Structure to design on (141 residues):
């Protein structure tokens, strides 16, 4: 007798390729985990707006624009300052991710996943050494 088809697991359903990141985070229970866990601030991009309220302020996103038409000048200025402050805090993370993506060994990793953490540590060490050398050279110049 053939086995009945299995229902897709929660993890399999949440990792569909055409699914938004915020939807996957919700389906995998990340929102509940953040809401129930210790307080930490996570800087997210605009794609995660709405998670801040669901996680008790743990997820911080750029400010949402409240006016679409006839925006008062004072609001436009305040919104721009808040947006720049948020992006200034996130830029370090974005640069770190970009540096990792620049390394072809990470973007085209064909080896075993168990060795990936060793590769990430090696790249982080090389990058740290490169930045220290650049800083030392800049101070001498």
């Amino acid at each position: 007798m053939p086995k009945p088809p299995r229902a897709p697991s929660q993890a399999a359903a949440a990792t569909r390729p055409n699914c938004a990141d915020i939807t996957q985070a919700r389906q995998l229970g990340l929102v509940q985990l953040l809401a129930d866990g210790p307080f930490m601030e996570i800087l997210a991009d605009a794609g995660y707006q709405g998670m801040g309220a669901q996680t008790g302020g743990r997820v911080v996103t750029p400010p949402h624009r409240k006016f679409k038409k006839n925006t008062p000048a004072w609001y436009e200025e305040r919104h721009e300052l808040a947006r720049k402050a948020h992006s200034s805090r996130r830029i370090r993370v974005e640069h770190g991710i970009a540096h990792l993506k620049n390394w072809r060994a990470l973007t085209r990793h064909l080896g075993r996943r168990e060795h990936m953490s060793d590769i990430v540590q090696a790249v982080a060490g090389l990058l740290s050494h490169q930045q220290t050398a650049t800083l030392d050279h800049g101070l001498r110049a």
